[in-house]
Fold this protein.
Amino acid sequence: MAGLIPQNFIDDLIGRSDIVEVINARVPLKRKGKEFTACCPFHNEKTPSFTVSENKQFFYCFGCHAKGNVIGFLMDYEHLSYIDAIESLAADAHVDVPREGNITDNKNREDKQPLYDILKQASELFQKQLKTSDRAIEYLKKRGLSGEIAKTFKIGYAPDGWDFLISQLGKSTENLSALTKTGLIVNKENNKTYDRFRDRIIFPITDQRGRIIGFGGRILDQGEPKYLNSPENSVFHKGYELYGLYEAKMALRKIDRIMIVEGYMDVVALAQSGINYAVASLGTATTTDQIQKTFRTTHEIIFCYDGDNAGKKAAWRALENTLTVIRDGMIAKFLFLPEKEDPDTMVRKEGKDAFEQRIKNATTLSGFLFDNLKTKSDITTQEGKAQLASKANVLIQKMHNSLFKDLLIEELSTLIGLSQQHLEAKISSQEKKKRPLMQPAKPVRGQQVSNNKTRLAVALLIQNPILATHHKVPEHFREAFNKGLPLLFTLQKTIESNPDISSAALLERFRDGEHEKALNTLSMLQTPETENEDNIINVYKEIVIRLNSEERSDFFKSKLSNNEQLTAEEWNEYLDRPNNNSNDDTSQ
């Protein structure tokens, strides 16, 4: 099992990751005063209620109450596990995620490193085999590929036979396990094994860090399946990855557009011709996750398909998925090639310049949307117009609120001769019917922060960890009557042991704990405006002093009312308290 990721590494990673930059790459933000806003990516809304604080490094939605730090955002937005979110941030920062030795994760997460290792070793073996196979080399030459491009994409060859990888890499139990988990070998019911890839050109698939996570294999002669992919496993998720994306990033400093094609050979052939911005969707319909991933790299996507019915159907699925993702500033186009042609054959026939001219003339998303709908409805009749409007409404409802959405409604309005205001009202009413009612917020369980001064003290400390070095909370807060004070004490001790910890990293320390929801809320609590750090320190100090006074008052009242004996030290403190014979100020 892998060791835990060191907490100081997580703290440092959060500190070096700018939440504004991370979120803006996925959800375009606009500055509003000291903060940034956008329409919330977690629920549909027209008026922006999603706020990102650059200073606090937190996000919060006043509509659906989603909140958290940069790790929490990646987990929610990209549906990542905790570890995968950390690895994603680490990849962006170009650092490796370390592990503590001999400490197992209490959630029993799998150690993925042996899988990456075995995949790398397999790729190296496949590449060596390519160099020794005249048949495989001749095949690639016929497809117009050079040795240089084969090296760039780490293209290899899996020899014919049943046990090439097993005989080379399967000599230990650990390696056999890794070969099985990555799908490189297949286990039969009779406990016999065989290689998955046999007599195929091998295309390694890499993740955003350049690690090999799977393979695609293309048969050299006739046979089925023409292409064979690695199966889904803990490091390879076909619906999320894109073949050639890492290579495109390595080839181009700035990527103005990305073209999504269907085959590995298309990507490599286009790169051979100098078109280095093509990626492949691994033989499946392009998924929402793949589209989101692409838009985080560039602002323009060109979907390239064969012009036959199958190509048009694949393009339509891509359009539907794009509508749920696209926002203002993003561009999607569709390029349809002549029937029985693909990017590989076309670029070899007509060259780079002619092919890129096709890209420039590609059909816009709106053009493809309405042209396709018009072929299925007779808009010379009122019934046909109503049919087209109904189909278009279903698609437009999938979109985030944006200027682009408004423009599509305007174009639909012109097309069917109905006012834009009427259409918007219709779409809006249908959206509300489908939208689930917001559930009332549930109270936070565990130790609650109910006292207003306590809430403010915790909020100030979370948002300004440096306060812990200027004024320490009393030791007896550890077991105080006010249930929020032990939390304040815990925060104090956490900061004392990590003096340079940031607000976002401090919040991360309480993930999955009983205080997580309360602290997430308090991290975005509006605290009193102060002109400088000294004022913040004075406000915090005054609050802690008052909280201490109230806490000791409650302590003495409880003991005296229960006829419990005070210690000599407690008697001295009680007698020294002002107004000890009257009610203490316990105002909230």
Remarks:
- The CA atoms of residues 385 and 415 lie 8 Å apart.
- The chain has a mean pLDDT of 84.
